[in-house]
Amino acid sequence: MATPAQSGLTRERPPILKISVIDWLRANLFNSIHNSILTILCLLALVFIVPDALRWTFIDSIWYTEDSNVCRAAAGACWAVIPEKYRLILFGTFPYDEHWRGLIVILIIVGLTIISAFERFWSIHLFTTWIIAFVIVLWLMLGGSFGLKTISTNRWGGLPLTLILFVGTVVGGLPMAIFLALGRRSELPVIKAVCVATIEIIRGVPLITVLFMFSLMFPLFMPADITVDKILRAQVGMIIFFAAYGAEVIRGGLQAIPRGQYEAADSLGLSYWKKTHKIIMPQALRIVIPPLVNDIIRAFKNTTFVSIIGLFDLLGATKAATEDPKWQNYAMEAYAFIFIIYFIFCFSMSKYSESVERKLSEGRNY
Amino acid sequence: MAENQNDTMVKLENVNKWFDDFHVLKDINLTVKKGERIVVCGPSGSGKSTMIRCINRLEVHQQGHISVDGTELTDDMRNIEQIRSAVGMVFQSFNLFPHLTVLDNLTLGPIYVQKLPEHDANKRAMALLERVKIPEQALKFPGQLSGGQQQRVAIARSLMMQPNIMLFDEPTSALDPEMINEVLDVMVELAKEGMTMLVVTHEMGFAKEVADRIVFMDEGEIVEVAAPDTFFNNPESDRTQLFLSQILTH
Description:
The complex is a heterodimer.
Chain A: H1 2-10, H2 21-28, H3 33-59, H4 68-73, H5 81-91, H6 99-116, H7 124-142, H8 158-184, H9 189-203, H10 207-221, H11 230-255, H12 259-267, H13 272-287, H14 289-302, E1 312-313, H15 314-321, H16 331-361
Chain B: H1 2-6, E1 8-19, E2 22-33, E3 37-41, H2 48-55, E4 63-68, E5 71-72, H3 77-86, E6 87-90, H4 102-112, H5 118-131, H6 147-159, E7 165-169, H7 177-192, E8 196-200, H8 204-210, E9 213-218, E10 221-226, H9 228-233, H10 238-247
Helix pairs in contact in B: 4-5, 4-6, 5-6, 6-7
């Protein structure tokens, strides 16, 4: 009596079902008249589009030439625009002979960002490293000391500018977001009102408006002899914009912390700041890592808005590079190139967020 | 008079509290002497938890005076933090910090409130974990422990601050039956060592064993205060008799 029941229990896996390709097709693609029609339509679309796309991209395309007339004669893509213009695209109007400085800046920022993604490196040393990196990046970009030629900020451009704006937005915006979120929950009416007003006003207008406000209106309010650098003004605008959204995300995390955590911290006699720093914030931030990374990805893409106020970030530089009359017909290929760059950055961040999320969902044991 | 003051640990005088227009504590008068063990019982909603939560100001009373070890509770945050660090509190739902190890849960208070060096805090923590019989769990996270173990860690965490008095807010109510005793054992031992304790609980066996006095509350009032013997065998008020008959039938 017990034996068959037990052997039934010890069998670990359900029997493996064998499904043939035809069964699978029938079950998933042709399981109703509607689905069958849709499947056929999609197949037809692929048949029409894919061969032409492949031919344009790979077969009829020109991979390398210095003569744009060669491209004009070809039927396919003119990838030659990329080797011809990539330095202008990547570094914008940065002086040609100093591009190596921009390249080092890119390597520093990308390298440190990758290191920062690993939890085992999260310590005060990482923070110090970032500060040192910040100083080095500024030195490389501005020059003027230790044998480097001075470069004015209005010649900054391309990927280094995009990365500097992005890192600046996140590094400046995250702490501000934390304080705005805390302030919004404050029991002190003045602090609360200021934080609510900041968040709601900034969230209520498009980023482009914020950027215009900071780049065009802000100088009007300042005394004539004080000028704040254009990039710095854009940077401040982007920081505040990021912080307003980040604050709401973090506030969500704060609301998810049970009251008992506050009470336990209070009953130990911890001060407000110690309680926030050691008990509440670490838990709240862990909860909101996925939506926060989402905001960070958006911040990366939002750097493209500065091309509208006349800065040559990666997108702005590409636009400028393709204005060369000889190559202006091949802007699409150049944009495809930066599409890939943006995609690599954003997709890696998205994958990173996914892995963090997976780690967090493996039980709440931290 | 002066002598009286010196051996008083907690004094509540005419304490009144409202939640909106619900009068949750009505003219509460209670004096807890040093080294005294008091069990507070009563039906749910009678204000027992609220009363002990007023003592470390997790709740704010609106009328009357509360003093702890001679210091009166005021709105001054410094004063409150100082009193809180001298009053240990154990919650029904443990409230351990889930992102910290057991050891870090214990050492956090002493390190940041009492400015104790980390090395000394760790030593104190290991000694206390020994006392609550789970030193081997020091490096685990709260989520990896059973309910009974978590509550013992919570008791140890409160003791880390070397409090003058321990408040227990239904410490065994959230536990599975087989884990209640391991927590009560720790509390009995604490009582034997002379800790001043104010315990809200329905564990009448525990009350009989360790309480010097039992406080019975109903509808926001202290109905009766008596030694366990009198309380269980000769309760004065009808309400107490009714309550006892309800909880002791099984």
